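REQUEST
  id: r-88c1
  op: predict_structure
  target: Thioredoxin domain-containing protein
  payload:
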Amino acid sequence: MKRRSLILSVLAVSVAGFGGATWFATRPGPMVEAEPLAPELAEAMIRPYSPILGPEEAPVTIVEFFDPACEACRAFHPIVKDIMAEHGNAVRVVIRYTPFHGEASEEAIRVLEAARMQGVFEPVLEAVLREQPNWASHGAPTPGRLLQIAATVGLDAEAARTQMLSPGVVAILNQDRADVETVGIRQTPTFFVNGISLDPFGEAELRRLVAAQVAAAQS
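RESPONSE
  id: r-88c1
  status: 200
  body:
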């Protein structure tokens, strides 16, 4: 009888310990309060022309400083899409071009802007990231390779050759470079959620910060 009681006591302590450990591992992080950005930073964070993924009027905005030639940006892309899917119409993503990989980055951005003019931005974005290892190595893409990739998902490559050189695309590249300097971006991807910097950086931290902002928006 005593042995049975001892076993039951040990099991009870174990269950309590497991429950406590589980709570500790999954407990919500502290709520991060949004502080108003300085006017010059707020203006540089989002431009009217910036590409938007998701509903334009969503209450939670992820600003991603994004380089299409960046391997980490490619790795985070499905995570960002999963976060958007998890929260339905509550989250949008604003893309800010951050050409840190020289010629490869700039050409990819020009292709993406041509795709936007033709209404095929998202499929071309998916193709550019999926095929990144085939065009972005060493920062010097094979001429025409990106257009070939984009053409497989609907881009009119001949029209794009002219669109990529348009003054509007040049202006976007120049303004985004200036904004990257103003905001102080040093690596990609860099995320802000409703103006809050993702610090420390990480998938779990991004998911937690977005969830907190969605909860705050819905309360």
